Every structure is written in structure tokens, then in C-alpha cells.
Amino acid sequence: MARGRAPVSRKAQPGGAASPARQARGRVAHVSGAMAEDNVSRLLEGKGMAVLARRWRGQAGEIDLICQHGDCLVFVEVKQSSTHQQAAQRLNAAQQGRILRGALEYCESQGHAPWPAMRFDVALVDQRGRVEILEAAFDEPCP
Q1: DSSP for residue 46
Q2: Which residue intervals make up region (Disordered) (predicted)?
Q3: What is the CATH number of the domain that holds 40?
Q4: CB 75 within 8 A of CB 123
Q5: Which segment of 58-62, 71-75, 137-141 scores lowest on mean pLDDT?
């Protein structure tokens, strides 16, 4: 790199706009994620859950799916990758904390007091669209 010149980011065009290629990848990822969430929603509804919210957004961040199963609120994070194992590796401790904070924020916004029974599931979606649900992936299951 020549002295006195700032490095050029591959992520953005001058002025901060994303490159057309990056914008296209973002659109594909958005559509792919929405399709995975649709697939997971249908599967959960088939198991008797009611989907209360999709892509619910609060101060803590976004929760992919919020469902009701009996007296239990189920917060579902959808992870998509080539394999279920790779998808599972994409959920880290920081995301778990964000989901937990978001769940408490959701309950507050809905007037749930005292806190209802809650469970945190992860839905793993592979490149073929197959879904594996990990119930109570990072908490205790509902009674």
C-alpha cells in the first residue's frame, strides 16, 4: 500500500454505500432467511404451537419467532447453514444473551407479570431446507 493513502474497503463504496455485489448477497441472505423462518413456522404450527410474532424487534435486538405452546412462551432462533452442525456453531453466547434480554423485553411489552414459563429453542436449517429443532437449547425446559 502506498504511503498516505487510506485502504479501500471491499465492503463499501465511496460514501459508505455497499457495493452492488454485497447488496445482492444481502438480498439473497434476507430471502433465504425468511424462507427458512417460514419453513420452521409451518413445522412448529404442525406441532401445535401458535406463532405469536415473527422477526420481533426490541431494544435488545431481533427474535426470529415467538410462539406459544400451552402456557409456555417459546423463543426460537433460526440458524441456517450448509449443515445442521455448521448452523449450530453459529449461535454464540452473545446471541444467547441478546435473545434472553429480548425475551424479557417482549414479556414486559405484552404485560406478562409475573414472568410466564419460557423456553429457548434453536431451529437448525441445512442447505436442503431440512429442519432440526433443539428444544430448550440454552435454558431449562418448560414444566
Answers
A1: H
A2: 1-25
A3: 3.40.1350.10
A4: no
A5: 137-141
Q: Which residue has the cell 442447505?
A: 127
The number of folded domains in the chain is 1
pLDDT in tens, 65-101: 999 999 999 999 999 999 999 999 999 999 999 999 9
Which of 14, 9, 63 lies closest to 40 in space, CA to CA?
Answer: 63
For the stretch 94-126, pLDDT in tens is: 999 999 999 999 999 999 878 899 999 999 999
Domain assignment present for 101: yes
Q: Which of 123, 126, 121, 128 is nearest to 99 (CA)?
A: 121
Give this prediction's pTM: 0.79
Nearest of 80, 98, 101, 86 to residue 38 by alpha carbon? 80
